[in-house]
Structures are given as C-alpha cells and as structure tokens.
C-alpha cells in the first residue's frame, strides 16, 4: 500500500491533472464561472449547461458525447460547462441545486424561464434532441398563403418579420431568433413556400430550391421591405437589433445589410468541415463514434445542415454575397504534398488554468 502522505498528495493533484484535458481544446463547449454564467443568462437564449467535476468518471465519459452535441448545435444553441470543483464556482453550483455529477440543465430562455433538468441517456443524440425540441416557439406558423394578410393586419403595432421557406420544418435558426426577440417590438412568423407559388401570389419571384425570403413589415405598414443580407444567425441578429434601435431609417439598414459579404475565418471553416463530416456519416453509414448523431439527425431531419446551414445559416449563400478571394491568396500545393490546416496553423497551444476543464 502507498503511504498516507502519497495518497493525500495524489488526491490533491488528481483533479487538476484530469481537468487539464477533460474537454478537447477544439471543443465548442464553453466554460463558465459564476460571473460569466450570469452574463450568459442575460442573453435570453436557449442554452445547455453541464455542471461537472474533473474527478467524476461519469463526467469524463460524457465529455465526447457532449462535445459532439455542441458541434451539432453550434451556433444556434450555446453549450456550456461549469467546473463545480473550482472553489469560485461552488456557490453557483449549490444555487443551481447540483447534488451529483454530471448534472445537465437546459435553460429555455436565459434567466427568464426555469431550467429543465436533463434526465435521459447522456449521448450526443440525447443532448441534441433535448435542446432542439425545447426552444420556446415564439413565432406564428402560417400554413396557408391566405393567412398571411390577416396576420400582417392584426399586428400593426409591431415590426412583423415573415420567413418564406422551402423547407418542411421551420428552420431551427428561425425558432432561435423568435425566442431571442420574444416580448419585443418584433413579431416573427413562418410560411412554407415549397415551390414558390406563395411568393408569386405575393408579387415575388419563386426563388431557388433552397432560397428563403425574409420580409419586413414596419410598424403601422402593410407593405413589406425585403431583407437581402446574409441569412446567418449573427447577421440577422444585427439586423433585428438595428430595427429595434429605431435610430436609423429602415431603408438604410436594409442597404447596409446587403453590403455584408460572406467570408469565413479559419476557425469557422474548420467547424464547417467537422459538421460536414457529421452529415457524411449520416448519409453513408457513418463512423461508429457518430452513430448516436445519425439517429438524432435521421429522426430530426436528415437535411439538418441543409436547412440550417453552417454557422446557423438558412439556405445557400447568394453568389453576390460571397467574397471573391484574390489569386495571390491561394497557395499552390504540389502533388504529393499536404496543405497544412489553417486552423491548426493559426491556433497556438494555450495553457489551461488548473481549475478549468
């Protein structure tokens, strides 16, 4: 047997040694402490939070599944973790009623609604289902084109924003935005325009097979203004914020949104590559470590990334909004050589504090 002093030292060091690599460096799970938790809850968005301890074996087993779920949910539903072993977080974990590890909770709308305890199988599909199905639905779903005019006319005290989508299901992005801007001067609705016939009846072009349309009806008006910017989470959020701000003319806000070009960062490109791997796994029998995600996406919609896009985008990127790379920016790669990963090349290793995961 080991001397008591060595056992005591091992007990002290073990948590920090385990915690140093609990979540992979490329994981999209963001660590929170007591201060950043409060900030996250002020965002009024749906988020998933795991309360864990680095010495917990069940937590360590959960990490790969939770990380896969974070990738599938990104960036529409933030996925967080709190290290309850850290002294600075113990009060927060106590306030959240954490009595065992791991404890995973869904916060439907930040601090505005009570959290929901996750009590199902700790798999990627389990987390994914749990989160996507519980985003509060603060939008109006209009099944027939004849119902659009009455909806517009009955909400003239708000800015009405109508999504015309080709998809059978309301995109998760639209559900997330409707939840985020609930109880504001924005009212969101969705109408399925599968073949573009509704668009034609409304005096618009049918549009491409995956082309959504976003129409804005300003307060007091029944005449729409068309949003022609990027249908991304951050772009639409910025646009909605500008409408609510009210200091700028709406036509100018529309024009500004049309100037934003789509340009991926190396980090975004790497995330898209991994999300594409999830889709390939789904369509072609998959890799064993993605079987759970296959089940989730098969039942929740095999076109998940087609509908929601990468980086939370609806539909494809219009050609005129794509930034054209300069010829000099494209490095040549000789046959037999391997191009280095831009994400790996630009991301230097960073040391983790001992009490972080």
From TrEMBL:
Per UniProt, which keywords does this protein have? Signal
- What SUPFAM superfamilies does UniProt report for this protein, alphabetically? Thioredoxin-like
Q: Which residues form a coiled coil?
A: none
Signal sequence, renumbered to the chain:
1-20
Stretches the record annotates as Disordered: 321-357
> What is one Pfam family matched by this protein?
Thioredoxin
Q: Which GO terms describe its biological process?
A: response to endoplasmic reticulum stress
Output the superkingdom of the source species. Eukaryota
GO CC terms in record: endoplasmic reticulum lumen
**Protein's name according to its UniProt entry:** Thioredoxin domain-containing protein
């Amino acid at each position: 047997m080991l001397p008591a002093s060595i056992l005591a030292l091992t007990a002290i060091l073990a948590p920090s040694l385990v915690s140093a690599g609990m979540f992979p460096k490329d994981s999209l799970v963001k660590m929170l402490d007591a201060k950043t938790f409060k900030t996250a809850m002020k965002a009024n968005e749906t988020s998933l939070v795991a309360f864990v301890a680095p010495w917990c074996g069940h937590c360590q087993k959960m990490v790969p599944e939770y990380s896969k779920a974070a990738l599938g949910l990104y960036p529409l539903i933030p996925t967080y973790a709190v290290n309850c072993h850290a002294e600075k977080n113990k009060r927060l974990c106590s306030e959240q009623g954490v009595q065992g590890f791991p404890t995973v909770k869904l916060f439907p709308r930040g601090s505005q609604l009570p959290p929901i305890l996750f009590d199902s199988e700790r798999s990627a599909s389990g987390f994914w289902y749990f989160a996507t199905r519980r985003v509060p639905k603060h939008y109006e779903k209009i099944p027939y084109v004849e119902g659009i005019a009455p909806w517009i006319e009955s909400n003239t005290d708000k800015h009405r924003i109508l999504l015309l989508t080709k998809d059978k299901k309301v995109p998760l992005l639209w559900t997330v935005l409707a939840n985020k801007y609930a109880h504001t001067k924005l009212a969101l609705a969705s109408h399925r325009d599968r073949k573009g016939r509704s668009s034609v009846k409304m005096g618009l072009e049918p549009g491409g097979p995956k082309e959504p349309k976003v129409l804005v009806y300003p307060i007091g008006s029944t005449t729409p203004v068309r949003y022609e910017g990027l249908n991304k989470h951050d772009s639409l959020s910025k646009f909605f914020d500008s409408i609510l701000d009210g200091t700028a003319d709406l036509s100018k806000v529309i024009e500004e949104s049309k100037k934003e070009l789509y340009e991926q960062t190396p980090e975004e490109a790497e995330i898209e590559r991994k999300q594409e791997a999830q889709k390939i796994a789904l369509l072609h029998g998959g890799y064993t470590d993605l079987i759970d995600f296959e089940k989730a996406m098969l039942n929740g919609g095999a076109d998940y990334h087609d509908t929601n896009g990468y980086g939370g985008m609806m539909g494809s990127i219009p050609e005129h909004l794509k930034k054209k790379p300069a010829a000099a920016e494209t490095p040549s790669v000789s046959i037999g050589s391997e191009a280095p990963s831009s994400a790996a090349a630009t991301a230097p290793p960073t040391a983790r504090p001992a009490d972080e995961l």
